[in-house]
From TrEMBL:
InterPro entries with a match to the protein in the record: AB_hydrolase_fold, DNA-binding_regulatory
Biased composition (Basic and acidic residues): 1-21
Superkingdom in the source lineage: Bacteria
Organism lineage string: Bacteria, Bacillati, Mycoplasmatota, Mollicutes, Entomoplasmatales
Gene3D superfamilies for the chain: alpha/beta hydrolase
Species assigned in the record: Mesoplasma lactucae ATCC 49193
Protein's recorded name: Uncharacterized protein
Location of the region described as Disordered in the Swiss-Prot/TrEMBL record: 1-38
């Protein structure tokens, strides 16, 4: 029993070692950094999730929240998010004034219901009143609909109208629901797609997601492939997606230990099984059934093709880039003649920060991908010119000066 209680801790660490990021004890970490991360951890510790019955699952969710919050130095400051606050964040933290959304009189707040009866809050951003092409943009764990809106910036420039929404237990949603890292959240994405089709009758739709949102898009594509096709979903863009909860857990633990050491391998496997078992027993959620690689293999003979674009960073410490590689490889069963999948893996960035570190190149890669599918060369050229996204502009920006080999592959 004592051994189980100390599996997250080093022998010399105190009883709070499993709450505080172990990197705080490493040489070179400043006192201000320790204080910043301690504040985040204390806030989590003092506001436990009453809707999660399992402490094992709750601890994992809380640790994920801490890991997601640390890169966002303005997390507390921007807790009650709005367009003006997000604009300041894009300037002060992202250092990307081109990410600012200046037109705000075209935002329509709305509510809709998920298929299992949860009230969800959303936004409609009308980029072009004469356009009926739409993007559904989904946010990451711990974020909200405003983040999703800002991450859809490439499509705002291309004249798409944007629908973004808060996942259950995120943003302005008040009903207490368990966070399932994709299973129940997929219902939210499905409900948003159905609402959009029923109420706006789009000419065609694109989906965009980051982290958790990206997972739900992949999961929805497999589970409700007919809905993708009947809704005329033309493409999907997925940043920092994971293919399984197991992958998230393993990657989280691998940050602090040498995964190849036998004792840690056994501890990690045990931890994975414990979290999965707790979720199934206490929350009635079978996380193991949501491995996207397994699902793809099971349904590869019945799935109809929709192009996917994956992007991540090789040094992402939260969501491993290997998940994107593995997903795009496992999608190779689609006919080569129709396969237009694309993957871009940067050397340096972190989850949700690719637009911060690689704004121009990321914008260009997404816009080029969209044009391969939609084929509006004139509009694409106009946006590339107006946003200064030519190859020369990207080189002059200096954003890619530290990149060694950015992996880009178009099927």
């Amino acid at each position: 029993m004592a051994k189980q209680k100390t599996e997250y801790k080093d022998k010399k660490s105190n009883k709070k070692a499993d709450k505080l990021d172990q990197s705080l004890n490493e040489p070179g970490v400043t006192d201000s950094k320790r204080k910043e991360e301690k504040i985040i951890d204390d806030r989590i510790d003092n506001s436990k999730n009453p809707f999660i019955k399992s402490k094992t699952l709750e601890d994992f969710i809380n640790k994920l929240y801490v890991d997601n919050s640390i890169p966002m130095r303005y997390n507390d400051k921007f807790k009650n998010t709005s367009i003006p606050k997000m604009n300041r964040l894009m300037i002060d933290f992202f250092k990307q004034p081109d990410m600012v959304i200046s037109q705000t009189n075209n935002i329509i707040p709305f509510r809709f219901y998920s298929n299992d009866g949860i009230t969800l809050n959303g936004l409609q951003y009308i980029s072009n009143k004469t356009s009926n092409k739409w993007i559904i943009s989904t946010h990451d764990f711990g974020q909200n609909k405003y983040w999703a809106l800002f991450f859809a910036k490439p499509f705002i420039e291309l004249g798409y109208n944007i629908l973004s929404f808060d996942f259950r237990n995120h943003g302005d949603n008040k009903e207490e629901q368990p966070i399932t890292l994709g299973q129940l959240e997929t219902i939210d994405t499905k409900s948003a797609l159905e609402w959009l089709v029923e109420n706006k009758h789009p000419d065609y739709i694109g989906l965009m997601g980051v982290g958790l949102g990206a997972y739900t898009i992949n999961n929805l594509f497999i589970e409700n492939n007919d809905l993708f096709i009947s809704s005329n979903v033309k493409f999907s863009v997925c940043e920092s997606t994971y293919h399984s909860v197991e992958s998230l857990i393993i990657n989280q633990r691998r940050k602090w230990r040498y995964i190849y050491e036998t004792p840690f391998v056994k501890q990690t496997a045990k931890r994975v099984h414990k979290i999965m078992k707790a979720a199934k027993k206490e929350e009635h959620v079978d996380l193991k059934e949501n491995n996207l690689l397994v699902k793809l293999n099971q349904k590869k003979n019945t799935l109809k093709y929709v192009p996917f674009f994956y992007t991540n960073s090789s040094i992402n410490t939260l969501v491993p880039a290997k998940d994107s590689y593995e997903l795009i490889i496992d999608r190779e069963f689609f006919k080569q003649s129709e396969n237009k999948d694309k993957i871009v893996i940067y050397d340096f960035s972190q989850s949700r920060l690719i637009f911060k570190d690689h704004f121009k190149k990321n914008m260009r890669e997404i816009i080029d991908f969209e044009n391969v599918i939609i084929g509006d060369d004139k509009l694409t050229e106009e946006v590339i010119k107006s946003m200064q996204l030519t190859d020369e502009d990207i080189a002059k920006s200096g954003e890619e000066s530290n990149e060694l080999i950015t992996f880009v592959h178009q099927s």
